[in-house]
Amino acid sequence: MLLTITTTAAPATDLGFLLHKHPDRAQSFEQSFGTAHVFYPEATGERCTAALLLDVDAQALLRARTSVSSPDFSLAQYVNDRPYATSSLFTVALGRVFRSALRGSCRARPELARTPLPLELRMPAVPCRSGAERARALFEPLGWTVDAEPVPLDPGLPGWGDSHYLSLTLTGTVRLSEALSHLYVLLPAMDGSKHYWVDRSEVDKLLRAGGLPGTAPRTAVDGPSAAGEATPSASAPEAPGEDGDGTDGPDADVGWLAGHPERDWITRRYLNRRDAYVRTALARIAEAEDLAEGDGADDPAAEEAETAPPAEGHDERVPTLAEQRAGAVMAVLEAEDATSVIDLGCGSGRLLARLAADRSLTRVTGVDVSVTALEHAHRRTCRGCDPGGGRRHRPLPALTGGAVGANGAPPRPELLVGSVVYRDRRFSGYDAAVLMEVIEHLDPSRLPAMEESVFGAARPRVVVVTTPNAEYNTHYEGLADGSLRHSDHRFEWTRAEFARWADRVAEQYGYRLRRLPVGSEDPETGSPTQMGVFVR
């Protein structure tokens, strides 16, 4: 198995700083299944190439198995592609040998770790039964130019056709840590068959490598999860970030996995089609998605994808919990004949887009503390607001400073920078207000201020509040007992706790209250989301 990494960013030999491997020395790293070698075929100021060569010991790989009860028993254990194809074995070595580079950690050149570099990655044999088009669909959305050529079964016998292996070359300008994380996740997904037992720790590894915020590194690799499989502590990959060098990588930005058009396919394949883990991973991706886009702490829309993705080969798609929740809010607003709505804590505008598209609403406004989040909301909801025409956008300040539309009316939707914990005259005059997955992002001590701002000062006729049901968290595999669904949540309430809070607020401010479940209900734990509808 071979990977070469080439850069032409002068001085090109700085690649050695990022990889933490000196260009003048060849180094070897023992693995439980063979030896990984790092060397530099070329190293000049103009061009530098680092190579990772994995020499797999087939006998050592066989000895790592503790039982003959696995599907690989018999001849397949001795005759397979593991020594040659860039598969999950290779990502194990990649994660260990280039651990600091994956993390984006470089004490000697910290600014270089944050700088996109012109890179060329070459791998001569990548298993991908879905073919070259799949490889392009996976890497091109990440900014790579993809050259994927099928490897013939036998060059001397062209009539035999092509194998399911690709000679893959990726060219692009990206940060080295991102480039390695793309390989760390996408190579096993393309292969679709890991050599080690997949347990719930794989969910965290996937999310960390996918760039999602709020995924703290583990301190140790878990032990074996099932008899008859390779021991994870010996041959499973360590997650990017388990460096132990006491340095932090660059701050998390938009996680590339959350925004990838093939994220469901990637997640399913990376987790070996383990449905429970896939549901958990997609739930956490959806929960963190808008926060990763930079919307501060209050984007309600991208929450748990509580339902499973469609099975491969089927087109039917089950609505995610985030979609069910937004649909439930829209249904309540329609039932209450709301004519104008303010979305408090709109984040990047997922619900706001649905509100703006509803022509029965005469006025729609989104509020968030984060200008970055409002930028995302603006681009999501705008259909070409620049007077010059086309689909160009006016700068956001033009839409948050009292601008008017072409007919003299406020733009649709209006976007305001503000916070629900402060009284604001701009929040008044609306028929309905929505706080969808917002209150759990507030410190409990700030809840009274929010209540006074929304229910006391703004005082809309209808207020819709949704928040997670803590009792339902037991259904999320990989979420430890007592843990919250997202690192930014300050609390999560049980149904009884939410009922006490909602009853008190309704009585104090003169509202009638009804509580509704959102999402599939469990007889014991209830629904994943709980909703309160306050009407006066």
Automatic annotation (TrEMBL):
Residues 223-239 have a biased composition (Low complexity). Belongs to the methyltransferase superfamily. HEN1 family. InterPro entries: Hen1, Hen1_N, Hen1_N_sf, SAM-dependent_MTases_sf. The keyword S-adenosyl-L-methionine applies. Its EC number is 2.1.1.386. Residues 1-210, 255-285 form the Hen1 N-terminal domain. Residues 240-251, 289-306 have a biased composition (Acidic residues). It comes from Nocardiopsis tropica. It catalyses: small RNA 3'-end nucleotide + S-adenosyl-L-methionine = small RNA 3'-end 2'-O-methylnucleotide + S-adenosyl-L-homocysteine + H(+). It comes from the Bacteria. The keyword S-adenosyl-L-methionine applies. Pfam families: Hen1_L, Methyltransf_23. This is Small RNA 2'-O-methyltransferase. Residues 209-258, 289-317 are annotated as: Disordered.
